[in-house]
Amino acid sequence: MRIKDLPDEELLLPGNAACQGCPSSIALRLALKALGRNTLMTVVASCTSVLQSPFPASALGVPLLNMAFATAGASGSGLAAAVERLVRKGVYAERPTVLVWAGDGGTYDIGIQALSGAAERNADFIYVCYNNEAYSNTGTQRSGATPYAAWTTNTVSGKREWRKDMAQIMVAHGIPYVATASLAYPIDLYEKFLRAKEIRGTRYIEVLAPCPPGWKFPSGHTIKVARLAVQTGMWLLYEHREGTTSYTAGTQRLIQGKARRLPVEEYLKVQGRFRHLFHPERDEGRIAEIQRRVDRVFETLEFTYRMREHIMDIEMLPPR
Amino acid sequence: MGQDEKTRRVASVLPGRPREVGEEIGFLTTISVPSKGSVGLTGTWRTFVPVLSRERCTGCLICWVYCPEACITREIEIDLNFCKGCGICAEECPRGAIAMVKEEKR
User: Fold this and answer.
1) pTM of the model as a whole
2) B39–A221: do the CB atoms touch at under 8 Å?
C-alpha cells in the first residue's frame, strides 16, 4: 500500500469550520477514505461538532448524529442496534459501518462510563478517539489525557499528574481490536481502519492529534510534531488483536533498532505548551523524569523483542 | 403512512446513495445537506498562500494526503477558494516545491 493507492473520494468537504492545520480533519479525512460512503457517524461534543458546520450545510459526506458529551458509547450502541434491525429487515444491500468520533475529553473523562459499558456489551462500532491531550474546543483545559508538565489554562505551571493510558484500558476490556495511530504515518493509519472495518464488535482506535492552537506551535508543523511524538517514543504505535500486541511503523523500527530513538527534548521544545521547561531556565528535573519514563517503557519493549527473536532462533535449530 | 412506506422514506436518506446540494429529501426535517464551503469561502482566512513550483514537483502526493482541507487535487492543483493557508503542504514537501508567500492585500 502506497500513498497513491489511497482512494480519491473526499467525504470531508473543503470550506469547513476547522482551524488551520487541524489534525482532527486530517484523521477524519483518512478514516472516511478507508471506511467509504457506507458509514454512519455519531459525533459527541468536541472540535468535530464545530467542524461539521452549522445547519443547513454539513461538511461531511456521511450521515451524522450530533450527540451530547457523555453519549459516545451509548449513541454508538443505539446506531449499531438500529443497523442490525434494518439489516435483518433487508433495508440495506450492504451493512454500513458505525463510526463513533470523540475527542479525548469525551473518551478519557466524560465518556468513559458509556464507552466501557458499550465495550463490555461488544457493541458493533468503530470508536475513534482523536487525542489532542486537552479540551481544545473550549480553549485548552486540562483533561485526563494531558501529559505530565504540559501547560493548559488550568495547569499554568505544567500538569503535575501523568496521563492515563486509555488504549490499554480498552485492551483490558478484551474487545476484538485496539489500535493507536499517528497522522505522520498515514498509510499505517489507513490500514488500521481497513482492518478494523473487517472485524465485528467494538473496535477502538486512538489517533494522536497535535493541535496547533492548543499545543502552541505554527499550524504548518502538525505532521512534524506528530512524527516527533513517535520518533521520541512519547507515542507508541501498535495494534492489539486476539490477545497479542504488535507494534507498527515508526515504533516497530525503534524497537527493532532500525531507527535511533530521539531524546524527548526534541519533541518538547517545538511546543509552546512545554516552554516553561526551557525558559527562563531549563528544568532538568522534569525533562529527565519524562525521559526516564520513556526509557523504562522501551527497555521492556526491546527486551521482549530480543527474547522473542532468541526463542525463535532456538526453535529454528535442527533437533538433536 | 404505513410502516413499509416509513421505512422506505427513512432508507432514502441513509448511506449508500450520494446526495446533491439542495436535493429534495422527502419529508420535513432538520437534516443538513453535505456541501462544500459550509462556512463560506475559507480562503479568506489565509495570511500565507501556497505557491507550487511545477519544475520541482514530482507528484508524490504527500501534500495531497496531509492537506486537512482536502483542497489539493491529485493533479496538485490547490483550490485557493478554500485553502486556509496552514502551510502543512509546504512543510512536508520533500522537494521543497511549495513555498508559503505572504498574501497581498485584497
Assistant:
1) 0.89
2) no
**Chain B residue numbers touching A25 (CB-CB < 8 A):** 68-69
Q: What distance in Å separates residue A58's CA from the closest CA in chain B?
A: 4
Instruction: Write the ipTM.
Output: 0.90
Binning pLDDT at 50, 70 and 90, where does residue B37 land? confident
Identify the CA nearest to A58 among candidates B31, B43, B69, B28: B31
Q: CB pairs below 8 Å between A and B: how many?
A: 147
Domains in chain A: ranges and CATH: 3-316 (3.40.50.970)
Nearest CB to B86 within list A21, A61, A92: A21
First to last CA, chain A: 42
A4 Cβ under 8 Å from any chain B Cβ: yes
Which domains are delineated in chain B? 1-34 (no CATH), 42-102 (3.30.70.20)
Contact between chains at A218 and B38 (C-beta distance less than 8 A): no
Mean pLDDT of A199-221: 95
* Per-residue pLDDT tens digits for A263-292: 999 999 999 999 999 988 999 999 999 999
**Bridge partners of residue A9, in order along the sequence:** none
Q: What is the rounded distance in angstroms from the CA atom of residue A276 to the CA atom of residue A155?
A: 12
